[in-house]
Amino acid sequence: MAVSEEAIFENTYSQYGERLYRLCLVQLKNTHDAEDAVQDVFVKRLYNAPEFKSPEHEKRWIYKVAVNLCRDRLRRKGRFDLPIEAAGDAVSQQRDLTLLESVMRLPEKNRAVIHLHYYEGYSVKEISAILGITISSVKMRLKRGREALQGEWGDTV
């Protein structure tokens, strides 16, 4: 690996590694699949990425690739339940762990939108671009995800 490739990998991994792992873990509910998906994202970033106009463009591209890879893995393998102890490294406090359990039980399309909005801080417009869906679809998925979480958590979320 050339020095410039190493620098790209190290920089990208330090910026996004932990957050991408969390996203993939929530989507895939399996630690090994999440690790594989994150690795695939970085391989794509290293060898297949377009020329980025800005750091935000790179960030959106990386998250879009991660979401798409997770979707593909779910289609190929089916869904598996995550032993919640495995998520302990990704989330530190018990309330957050319990909330993460609730988010992981949401349907896949609502889970992705909730995670990108509340855990990663993306706007509705940005999520629309990442997932390739309309803004109204993002809003509806957010609404349904929040309603499901409020049904379980009440006003504490």
Q: Approximately what portion of the residues adopt beta-strand conformation?
A: under 5%
Taking the sheet with the most strands, its summary is: none
The rounded distance between the terminal residues' Cα atoms is 46 Å
**Which structural class fits the helix and strand makeup?**
mainly alpha
- Low-confidence spans: pLDDT under 50, at least 5 residues? none
Order of helices and strands: HHHHHHH
Mean pLDDT: 79
Q: In total, how many beta strands? A: 0
Helix content: over 70%
Rg from alpha-carbon coordinates:
16 Å
* Number of helical elements: 7
Shape: globular
List keywords for this structure.
157 residues; 0% strand
Structure, explained:
With 157 residues, the protein is an all-alpha fold. The protein has helices at residues 3-28, 31-48, 55-77, 94-104, 108-119, 124-131, 135-153.
Structure, briefly:
Helices cover 75% and strands 0% of the residues. It is mostly helical and 157 residues long.
List the helices and strands and how they pair.
Blueprint: H1 3-28, H2 31-48, H3 55-77, H4 94-104, H5 108-119, H6 124-131, H7 135-153
Helix pairs in contact: 1-2, 1-3, 2-3, 3-6, 5-7, 6-7
